[in-house]
Records
---
Amino acid sequence: IEARRTANSAAHAKLTADDYIHIAGNGLVRDKKYAVSLPAAPKMGLRDLKTQIFGDVAVVTGVQAGTGATNPQDARFTHIWQRRNGQWLNVFGQNTPIRQLTPPASRLKQIETASWPKTSNRDEQAVVDALRRLNDVFAEKNAAAYDVMTAASYLRINPDGTDMTRVAYLKAVAGAPDGPKRSLPELRDFQVRVYGPVGLIVWVNRAINGSTDGVRRSRVFVREGGTWKQLISQDTVVAAP
């Protein structure tokens, strides 16, 4: 935070991994070079912080304020930090502005069959498979199965920056039991990472119209007893090109 307040790019770079992934408030994916070159934000501050430690990995959520060149806006964030050679480095960050959205911004194109990535890394593929199972049981409105695959401290961050607890979201998963099975959004642009006991998968849910380019979603998983469970789900609307 101190480095960002003063635009000290050298200090910022020392705390940022070379393979850092950043999802900006407009939903676009950025890298370390972008993150450490952001302008000074002297009024930047954080609140509602929650930190969870899993071995050499820390997952931090909260709200940041005081950024942006004009009309600073609060944003809900998720950061992942990993200890590498004794040094804590930021490996992932996502910001979702807290704002009111028009309905089209959150409407997504629905399809019958999703296309899933394949990777030669066993842990990365296990994270993809866990996400696929979650999507399947969500479509079936199987809240009991969804519950088993969801960590006790699960948090969902919606496209408008509001959040939902585990209990509230499980109720949403169940929905109306007598209604039709849910369709799935079209998924694309996957990125998968595994940081020891924490997994990350980022993708785009494609929009149903041209008002936005969709919703960039991250899903953070934690490995508990050999099983990958979702810990955080965060959405950021992708600006139309």
---
Amino acid sequence: MLTIDVHHPEIRTFVNIKRDLKKVTGANISIRLSDEFMQAVKDDGKVHLRFPVDKDAKHTVEEWIDAKQLWHEIIEAAWSSAEPGLLFWDTVKKRTPTEAYPDYRSTSTNPCGEIVLSPYDSCRLLLVNLYKFVKNPFTSAAAYDNERFKDVVIKAQRLMDDLIDLEIEAVDKIINKIKSDPEPDDVKQSELNLWNKIREAALGGRRTGLGVTALGDTLAAMGFVYGSDHSIQMTESLYKALALSAYRSTVTMAQERGAFPVFSHKLESDHPFIKQILEANPDL
């Protein structure tokens, strides 16, 4: 996944790059949108293009352009070439606990955008099939087995934690293979540095990406029109159950196995998403 900040001076070039079907054929592209930009769109205002893109940095390149015009360019490009995707980056940071850790702050996503990642981390993904929990699908007696869904999510999160250990084992084999290769150490060093950083990220943060699939099929099986109030309420309920059950599982594993190595209660205590989880389920 190639991403760019919406405030980057070359944002327009990036937005339209895939209209030329011969360019960027081997990657997905997305724009990291800020609340600042979206507010400018709503207010018919200007967006500040700058480099570096951080708002409080000393900018060496600056330009102000019409925010709504840029927004329309983004929409038209997505309509014509299915990209760029949109990442509401300020929301991402508010809802990603790793933002509390300076060495694990998110910089982009994995290739298809399922999980935001910090440098050198891996996308460890597992999906729970929502449709499998619909009882009597496509009938008037359709019902959702919420308790079974929560139980499976708890087990799936435990499996995700096990998968991290399996990945670390595989990375160790790669590192040992590189060390035993006949090439001189100075030739192997850059590759060793890369894999050691990947290992350090996996071992320290133990980041996982547990999600769901088949939401559309599930809503249809329940008799809900996609986009209706009933479908929105059910979607909110499913994702709330997913989040709370996954976090309950991690709490249990922390009691059994210990917290991940870089865990800090002090750093996490003020994170808005952690607060939201605790407010929704105080007994955690």
---
Amino acid sequence: MGIIYSHCVVIKTEGAITTYQVNDQRVVEDGIKKSTLQAYFNEDECEAKCMCGLFEMRGIICRHILSIFAARDVQVLPEKYIMERWRKDIKRRYGLIRSSYDDLSGKPVATRYSGLIKLCYQVATNACENEDNYLDMTQKLKAMNDIYTKSKPHATVASTHASIDAETGSSKNVLSPRVVRGKGRPPSKRRQPTIEKLQTKNKKAGGKRQRENPQSRMEDVLNPTESVILHNTPEAVV
């Protein structure tokens, strides 16, 4: 199963916005399935939007937009369509967050990140009290971020994999989670029939008697029929 072809046709053009009708055919189990969708292309921003909504919902660029880019001779995919979650060289922020099981002594980046976060909290607490301080801090942070972004070395996939070090020899012991009762009605609160109650009572009485008199346990093993009859008599139940 797969796509046979996807062809786009211009319907109308209004300024920089061009409306396309995208016709495609796919091979399915029952045969060939044809579908028709509308898509829009903004020439000024080099941006396309398809009615299937695949990129908006899942962050995956659809074949309809790709066919429009091919028709418009777009050689380089716009930065908007390159999601960070699909990049192999992206650095995840949760890898810099400290947990009770991590030892940050071998992670200088995580240590610096933790120190900057504490400092930013202090500065933000003081700057948010005044509108002028807030605007000044925002402007300076944006300028600093632009400088650091330009000076940051471009990481490649190979260098990213090489910088990943496995931590071994940790002395932390990860314990199992605490055992708690599940939600819902307790299983021991069900209604028991009378015969089951009598059997449970006889088992408890028999276990107590065996602990007090080990000789009676031996007699029950040698004469099981007599023991059962004795336990089920009205006198024994009472």
---
Amino acid sequence: MYIKQILYLLEKFVTVLGGNIKQNPNTQSLSQTGTELKTINDFLFQSQIDNINLFKVRRYCEKSMVSRKLFGFTERYGAVLAPPREQPRLTGFQHFIQSLQPGVTEAPTAPVEEGEARVPRPASPLMHIEGFLEALTTANQDGRVMLSRQGRLSQSSLKFLLLNPAVPFAQVVKECRAVVIAGGTMQPVSDFREQLLACAGVEAERLVEFSCGHVIPPDNILPLVLCSGPSNQQLEFTYLKRELPQMMDETGRILCNLCNVVPGGVICFFPSYEYQRQVHAHWDKSGLLARLAVRKKIFQEPKRANQVEQVLTEYSRCIQCHGQAGGMVNGALLLSVVGGKMSEGINFSDDLGRCVVMVGLPYPNIKSPELQEKMAYLDHTLPRTPGQAPPGKALVENLCMKAVNQSIGRAIRHQKDFASIVLLDQRYARPPILAKLPAWIRDRVEVKATFGPAFAALRKFHHEKSGLS
């Protein structure tokens, strides 16, 4: 009975997206495209599954462990293998004639293209279905269902957006004597206090916030906020200004100067892959890329995850080789993306990361339906503090600064390490933005209105530190 209900639910999920389970999803074109957000109740009614007791279906899945059984079955019989590539069918006579021809054998399977990863099939897709069904039992006001309809059914999806994480977290707070939330890069932490702990019923007197400093000496880091470039172009990488040729040229000139005085590796973070490609193409056309290549070998962060290791290996080898051999090229420049594969979990210690450059403020896409819904929810439910930004706007700023802090934390990985951090945007000098940096960086930040003093400070810092290392 419950298996039939699960199959019925799956059919209705496909139908609400505009598809048909009896047809191949790769060939089904959808007449309606775009992203749509619905309340949980509206989604249940539109899908015609409001008459099904999802609590009972969920309880059946838990007791029967049907998803685990499917997982064990697929683990044992191997569902990770890539599907075989189709070969032209030959009749018996054609196969016989082919075998008689000298030097002709059966056509080999076409090799996987370089950089093309074999994507494993999910071992038990039913686990995802169980999670989605559990999410649909959330209170109507605490979540939304996002219907993403693309060109084909196989590219479309259903996603649950939890608006109030305090509801599931409240049970943890209620049952435990103490709760410790720990992390390496958690600044700014106002989200935890206001959206998670306070909404979960935690009294203010129970909260204890502890943030320790860094193990490095204060003079082993040089964080700078740069407000203008070598040609006195004001640096403000807003959405409207960042694509201006003069803004991209100024960024290139700044990097050229930095590469002349910074030994080893320089990592430059851009707000998005699209902007990184646009700037790279502009530099190539204007000749700035060739000027950069005189001092640093240039690497770009790949979009494919299976190519990251190769790029990092070549980047590291280049720095080590040029550090020993000398010459004009004194290291490497890595063009990365905030929130990409190299902005978290990668260790750029010592010569791999002597300078981290952050181009602009990587604000999330304000037109995202998910972000707009979350902002509207916070503005409606959280009280507004006088003199501070609305809760929705504060969320956007916090998401931006968490990404910045995660990226600039790739350097300075041990006590004897040293590096400079250059924040390219005059908006970093604003007190509300500076306050969201980690204390061990914020307390040492120097705001430079012009490029000359900033360049002099960088040259002095790296000259002294390189002489001691």
